[in-house]
Design goal:
With 277 residues, the chain is an alpha/beta fold. The chain has one domain: Alpha/Beta hydrolase fold, catalytic domain (Rossmann fold, 3-Layer(aba) Sandwich). It is 29% helix and 18% strand. The protein has nine helices and eight strands. Strands 1-2-4-3-5-6-7-8 form an eight-stranded mixed β-sheet, with helices on both faces.
Amino acid sequence: MIDLSPLFAAPGANDMEWSNPVWPGRKMMLRSARPKAVTARTGLVFAHHGVGRNGWDYRDYWLDLVDQHDLMVIAPEFPPEGFPGVAWYNFGHLRGEDGSMLPVEASTYSIDKRLFADLRAQGLTAQAEYGIFGHSAGSQFVHRMISLGFREAVRLAVVANAGTYAFADTAIAWPYGLGGTGVGDLAPLFGFPMLVMAGTADIDTSSPNFPKEPQAMAQGGTRFERAQRYHAGAQAAAAALGVACAWRFEAVEGVAHDGCRMTAAAAPHLAAALHQA
């Protein structure tokens, strides 16, 4: 087990290299934003970067927020050299080179679960639960992670401005739905507290990073529209099953595809959830 105490070394920004035997030879960076006062009872958040694999930015977005909200934030960074393309990040390395489904526990979606277990084992956190935030490609990563069952010990997941979604529908093939993943009963997913956030100004479709494949366009013409449809689809599916849906939707007024501003919008929600734990 790799010592994670360097993430807590000093107030502000800390960095360390990390790897896990489940992905041999693939090194990652862990970047943390530590508040001035931190204890084993401080709320813990994992923040996931976008397509730029810029974990340092997604850590830095929290530097002015961690003291205000009494949070310890760790941003796992997936370098493209070791975790190339959407297959390894957005889609979690859930399929092998032959297209077959791989064991879910070996997917990159297991990162937060693994880190949390190590932090607890090392006495760096005594918290029983943690929060997760993802923006853009990180939002794709987080909501798919949650959908595949990585929900144990997660108090709240906030997903913001995703380009595509895995709709809570087993009739739609992965990664645009949950078909073929082995997920059956959707009621536990609907019962999980997930906050879907979208900037009302996230409507630019000209970026090369805006997904335009047919399956993506079927989800809506803009990221803002896709987020609304993802949330509405879950509400309708839950109602059809006769179960409650704990998902919430929040439109962030005037914000476009901006990781910094969406982080600031998500922070109070995560702090409130973790301080109630």
